[in-house]
Amino acid sequence: MDHLRKLQKDVANDVCTNMMVENSLKNDIKQTLNKRLEADELTKLRNEALEHFHKVLAASMEELYNEEKLESKLEELRQLKKDQQRFCTEDTKKGWRPSGNVNQDIKGPRCNALLAHMEDLEDIRNDLEQQIATKRTQLQEYIKQINQRMAS
After folding, report:
1. Would residue 113 count as lying in a domain?
2. Domain interval for residue 131
């Protein structure tokens, strides 16, 4: 949870320095030209705006953490990870794979798929052979007819 809060703080700082600086400087310059504010006053106003942004962001994030019960969920996740590591030996580090070798474990389903594909290809081959045989007989009949006409 501390890591998440640190990440939130870093993001807020980045947003403030990268996004708000440009717009706030433009507004501060306009106010300076209109009201002739001192540089110290401008810096003070900018810092107040940034502090307000940090407070609002922190409150929103804290509300989100509480609503979603993130802290308990993250703690539960940490505990599950520790339990997994505690019970994990060299034999069980294989994970879901029975043998630990991915290629060997997916061999069965892959073989079934390949066998089905080979059957489909065999059917296509048989159909094509039948078409070839039919075309050959037709061709032979045409040749006979041509030979008969040429002989007559």
Report:
1. no
2. 122-152
Give pLDDT tens digits for 25-82: 666 666 666 666 666 777 777 778 778 887 888 888 888 878 878 888 888 888 888 8
Whole-structure pTM value: 0.36
Tokens of 15: 């947003």
Instruction: Kindly give, in sequence order, each residue whose CB lies less than 8 Å from that of residue 32, ignoring residues fewer than 6 positions away.
Output: 42
Is 145 among the domain residues?
yes
Q: Hey, what amino acid is at 105? A: D
Helix (H) or strand (E) holding 25: helix 21-35
- Token code pair at residue 4: 């998440």
Distances (CA, A) of 6 to 2, 49, 82: 6, 21, 23
53: Cβ contacts below 8 Å, ≥ 6 apart: 12, 15, 16, 20
Q: Is residue 19 part of a domain?
A: yes
Q: Mean pLDDT across the stretch 103-122?
A: 84
Count of domains forming the chain? 2
Q: Are 9 and 50 in contact (CB under 8 A)?
A: no
